[in-house]
Amino acid sequence: MGRLRCQSDPGDSYKLAYYLRTDGHRLRRLVPVDSGLRELQALVRLRDDHVRARTAAGNQLGALLEQHWPGSKNLFCSLVSDIALNFLTDYPTPQSAARLGEARMAAFCKRHAYRGGKPASALLARLRSAPIAPVSLPTDVLTAQVQLLRSLQTTIAQLETTIKDRLARHPRAILLAELPGVGTINLAQLLAEVGPVLDRVESAEQAAAECGAAPVTKASGKTHGVYFRWAANTRARKAITAFAHNSRMQSPWAASLYVNARTRGKRNPHASRIVARAWLRVIWACWHNATPYDPYSHPAAQHLTAH
């Protein structure tokens, strides 16, 4: 296409239109993404946006507590967990928790079904041993931040319920449902982000390239190098590498690929992309043959299990 370049948009348009008229039969026709995948894609991306917003809101809350009430920041394992938000709702300031004793802490944990495994005495000791901030936090500021996090948590939960419902209705979900280590959200991400790529490209290697699971090879004279592929569908890369990470926890075949890559000196992200590239060949076959993945029909995995 380099010879078709012109110096203006109208000239470019004319040359492209001329090429389509004379050689359009050489080009592959693109089929629009089906409505089910488009809807699933919108839901998955909206959930990702809300998860990022939750992370940002949690970081903001942590910064506030670090300055005004350090004790409550590290009281529980996660600051965005229900038990942590419930504690900040009941005790929004250090003054409100000044008379909090072991019995009341135990009652609080029981009332909110605390499952962290720490006794009330240990939680109370952790709270009391933290530094005392010189300036207390205004109650309305903390309450607003807690309400924001609760709203995000509720929205994310609703989106996940909707994603699960749409996933159950999509006819292609069954093709990848038995992949090792894939969960509901990751399965939805694979269908929504990787699925349109599989429909568009002509081979598993092309899919690996567009999903960022294949490196870029550059050669000039005696110089040869293999580099990270920056030009890729980043959402599809995130979906397939997340699955690759999960799969090596459940599949001996994927675990073996990962260990071999690490043994060769590859870093964790690179090793995960190697596993993702191997899985894309399997997913490609399932997708285009309309055959659900069956671990007992996966030759490479069965060979490894047999030995």
Description:
The protein is mainly alpha-helical and 307 residues long. It has helices at 9-23, 35-68, 70-73, 82-90, 102-111, 120-129, 139-169, 173-176, 184-200, 204-210, 234-247, 252-263, 268-289, 299-306; strands at 216-220, 223-227. A hairpin with a 2-residue loop joins β1 (216-220) and β2. α2 (35-68) packs antiparallel against α7 (139-169) and α7 (139-169) packs across α9 (184-200). The chain is elongated, with a radius of gyration of 26 Å.
Quickly list its features:
307 residues, two-stranded antiparallel sheet, mainly alpha, 3% strand
What is the topological layout?
Blueprint: H1 9-23, H2 35-68, H3 70-73, H4 82-90, H5 102-111, H6 120-129, H7 139-169, H8 173-176, H9 184-200, H10 204-210, E1 216-220, E2 223-227, H11 234-247, H12 252-263, H13 268-289, H14 299-306
Antiparallel strand pairs: 1-2
Concise synopsis of the structure shown:
This protein is mostly helical and 307 residues long.
Instruction: Specify the structural class.
Output: mainly alpha
Bin the helical content.
55-70%
- Any idea what the radius of gyration is? 26 Å
The shape, in one word, is elongated
Low-confidence stretches: none
Count of DSSP helices?
14
Bin the strand percentage: under 5%
Straight-line N-to-C gap: 51 Å
Q: Looking across the biggest beta sheet, what order are the strands in?
A: 1-2
Number of strands: 2
What is the ordering of alpha helices and beta strands? HHHHHHHHHHEEHHHH
Mean pLDDT over the full residue set: 90
The biggest sheet amounts to: 2 strands, antiparallel
